[in-house]
Structure formats: structure tokens, C-alpha cells
Amino acid sequence: MPQRFKSLLIALLLTATLPLLSGCNMVLFEPKGAIAAEQIRLIIIATILMLLIVVPVIVMTIVIAWRYRASNTKATYEPNWAHSVKLEVIWWGVPCIIVAILATLTWFTTHSLDPYKPLDSKVKPVTIQVIALDWKWVFVYPEQGIATINYIEIPENTPISFEITAQGPMNSFWIPQLGGQIYAMAGMRTRLHLIADTQGVYDGLSANYSGEGFAEMTFKVKVETPSDFAKWVETVKASPDALTTNVFNALIAPSSNIPVQYFSSVQPNLFNDEMMKFMMPPMTQMALSDETTLAVE
User: Fold this and answer.
1) Distance in angstroms (rounded) separating the CA atoms of residues 145 and 278
2) Grouped pLDDT means (10 residues each) for the chain, 297 residues
3) FRET partner for 267 with CA separation of 20 to 30 A, picked from 19, 23, 140, 173?
């Protein structure tokens, strides 16, 4: 066997074993909610469709390089060959069909998995307001009047409506086993609707690099029965701490590895007030508009 072919074979084998040696966390492929399950199904289908092109191309590249190597005197030599209708139909037709299938899947799933779209359920959703700080998460339960730091507890089989913003750099709110990520941006309210169908404790994190403490910007999500969730809410309400404006302003200072904290009460309209801090006041907008008009005149 030629030395070049041996080197190529070794390189391919090493590449194939890298995923086994990486020790990566595969929780993304262990969905615990309806949204996550649909997203994983889409990823798998899209990957298989793309491999229908990638794998044959890789195999053909190796076969052609081996069959038509300079030392193989048995290979047919056709220096004037230039075109084949059959081959053109295959390598243009198959990719076009696959792209059309992927486009159709993308169209339907873009609407069915829209993160802003409320989930169909007879159960009343639980609203959680998310504020991303440096480098911690504040979660406000407006209907229950409580708040937490770096911890979420939710009832199973209950739609969860997340309202998300940031107090500082842009971040990305993500619970891999429950659904896809969505950005948290200052002065903006993004939304995400998820549901968990299995009790357990799952990891949440920031999926957008935001500075020194980014790696520690994680939180836990505990899924309980509705009755246990109600008991937990009562436990949080017994906390002696309150999330006032002064307490929140102190939390804004950059810090990481913050332990879980409970707040029995929350400053009214805290989420909206923090979001509005980064929005241009109406009077300022009018002043800028008048200045622009005068400049044009």
C-alpha cells in the first residue's frame, strides 16, 4: 500500500474518532419537552438529508483518487472526455431535490416552532421574566410575586412563557433539554415558550459570549409536579429577602458564581422599568425629530 494512501487512511480514522474522544455533553439529544423533541427531530432529519450528499462525495473522492492514481496502469485513460448527461443529472438533480425538501421543512418549522408563538394547552401558562446581568440570571415570577437568582422551578406539562431582556451586554437564554435559545438584549423584550413533560433538574446557560464570567453564567431548572411547584412558591414567599430597586442595582455590578437566592417579594414593574432604561424617551425622540427637520430646512 502506497505511503500517501496510508497517511490519508490514518487521518480519516483519527477524524472519525474525535467525537468519541471529545467527552462533549450530549444533553441536547435528550429532550425533556415537546419543543425540544421537535427541534431535535428537525436537526436529525436535516443532518441525514445533508449526509446523502456529503457521504457519497467523500466516498467518490477517495475512490477516484485511488482508482486513477498514477501507478494504476489498469485505469481507463480518456483525456478527451468532457461531458456526461447522466452524471450531470445526478449531481445537480439530487442536491436540488434535497434543497427543496430542506426549504419546505424550514418553512413549516419556522412557523410551528416560532418561539413567540404561545403553546396550545388547556393549562394556564406560568410567566417568568428573565433579566440577564453580568454574569448571573434574575428570574421574576410576576403572578406569584417572587424572584430568584440562578434558579428556575416550573410545573411539568405546563406551558412556560418567558419574557427576556438584559441589563448590560447581549446574552442568550438557553435550556438545551427544553428548547432552543433566544437572545436577551437591553431595551428589548424577547419571548420564548417552552414546556417540560418530564420531572428532573436540567441545566440552563448563556449561549452568547459576554465577557470574563461567561463560563459561570449558568442556572438550574427543576421540573416538579404542579402541587410541588405550589409548595415551592410558598417556600420562596417565606424568604426574608425582597428584590427592591436598591437590591437589584447592587446585583448589576459584574460578578460570577453567585449562589441561588430567593426573594419573597419584587419591586412592582421591575422588569419593565429595567427594560425601559435603555429605550429612548418620547420627548428625546421628538427633540431629535425637530432637530432633523430644522437641519433639512
Assistant:
1) 24
2) 54 53 66 92 90 90 88 82 87 90 91 92 95 95 97 96 93 94 93 96 92 91 96 96 94 92 95 83 48 41
3) 173
- Are residues 220 and 204 in contact, defined by beta-carbon separation less than 8 angstroms? yes
- Evaluated on CA atoms 117, 120, 124, 126, the torsion sign reads negative
- Number of C-beta neighbours around residue 245 at 10 A: 12
Q: What's the pTM?
A: 0.79
Instruction: Outline where 123-268 has alpha helix (H).
Output: 226-237, 245-251
Torsion sign (Cα): 52, 53, 58, 63: positive
Q: How far apart are the first and last CA of the chain?
A: 81
Closest CA to 126 of 204, 46, 232, 36: 232
Q: Which helix (H) or strand (E) holds 93?
A: helix 85-112
DSSP string, 135-163: TEEEEEETTTTEEEESEEEEETT--EEEE
